[in-house]
Amino acid sequence: MVSYLTKNIKILGSAVSIGQPKKGVEHTPAVLKIEKIEKLIDPVKAEWVDIVNQPQYKIERLRQSPIRNLLENAKANKRIHDAILKYADPNDFFLNIGGDHSIGSSTVTALNRVHNENLAVIWIDAHGDCNTPLTSPSGNYHGMPLAHALGFFKEPVYFDWGQTIIPITSVAMIGIRDLDIEEKIIMDKEGVLYFTMNQVRNIGMDKVMGEIMHKIDPYGEKMIHVSLDVDGFDPTLFPGTGTPVPGGLNFNDYKIFMKHIRSIGERFVSLDIVEVNLEIERNITLMNVKELLKHTFH
Ligand SMILES: [Mn+2]
């Protein structure tokens, strides 16, 4: 079987922190570029293509719309969506380095276009990211990107960059352990497939992934994107993240996860790594970002 590892790997930085209130997460692409992660991934085939910056903004303390800093979020997402359409080639592997998870709505919808609307998505996260502007307690867009990409925003959709809606049957989530009450009601009503940490511990990652692949890719023909929020992992491994929740995934879980991903070969097409905030904690987090890259690309 051909592996995704034979492809050229394009790395895009999404230097965005506008989806949540903590500064620092927007600097991660520049730091990882200085750290030369492309050499660690593949000294020959991996290269940075660009770093997309967010617009100037001042965090809206008083929420002026159901989405805090609505216009700046819209602008940042459009820039990332456009950059992916510009740089992503369906024959390459596309690695997107955030930034907070607000970029997830534009990465999955843009990559869905790149792959002829044949993309399935595995979303690793402690949170549901399925709030709508009307249910979100905080108004922070990084808690809403999956709801947006799945078309859960009712009129108005607030902003739209020509994205395609991802079908709900093509999405699964792993690592969930902190859902807001109304968010959980939406996820259950709409039928989002998600596995909580309790389920991962009870039935094991091997079985979780078996069920996920069977559900989101029953005929073995979808392209697979992984949107990896490092808060899906345990905060002892990634303390440098904005909204940590105890009791997350470990590297043994990730190895088993990657065993399933490897088995789909070249249909593993893209990965987001988001919510790495090295200004909250640097040493352990940076070391484990590199560990994560090793487990993914070697
Ligand atoms: Mn997230």
From TrEMBL:
Coiled coil: none annotated. It holds the Pfam family Arginase. Keywords: Arginine metabolism, Hydrolase, Manganese, Metal-binding. Pathway: Nitrogen metabolism; urea cycle; L-ornithine and urea from L-arginine: step 1/1. InterPro entries: Arginase, Ureohydrolase, Ureohydrolase_dom_sf, Ureohydrolase_Mn_BS. Its cofactor is Mn(2+). GO terms for molecular function: arginase activity; manganese ion binding. One of its GO terms (biological process) is arginine metabolic process. It is an enzyme of class 3 (hydrolase). One of its GO terms (cellular component) is nucleus. Its EC number is 3.5.3.1. Belongs to the arginase family. PANTHER family: ARGINASE. This is Arginase. The lineage of its organism: Eukaryota, Sar, Alveolata, Ciliophora, Postciliodesmatophora.
